[in-house]
UniProtKB/TrEMBL annotation:
Coiled-coil regions listed: none
Transmembrane segments: 47-65
Protein name listed in UniProt: Transmembrane protein
Biased composition (Polar residues): 90-109
Keyword annotations from UniProtKB, A to Z: Membrane, Transmembrane, Transmembrane helix
Region (Disordered): 1-28, 90-122
Amino acid sequence: MANQPKAEDIQQAPDGQQEGSPVASGWGGKIEEQYRKIKEHAETYPYVWGSYILVYGGFGMWLTYRWRKLRKTEDRVRVLQERLRKLVETEQSTNSAVVKEQSANSASLPNKPPSSGDKATK
């Protein structure tokens, strides 16, 4: 009951609404009331709000810088991964072609016994 305004403190406006009453209807009224409070506080304490802007603005700028740097690094890594993937694919395709060629050549050659010149003499 301590929060309720007294009857003599409340003045009636000509249109029937109460003046001085902080009762706000709906979300719009609540937002307006909060905006009014913040505006009054900012006008009363400008240096405090200046320091808020300086500190949180600097923090936001640093976060933005780090975020963009991270994105650039990720992009470079993706490009390098793509280049490496293409290199591996070409290397595997050339290796598989060489292996097929060697297997085809070895199948076409008759099996010869090792020559006696290859053996070490005692």
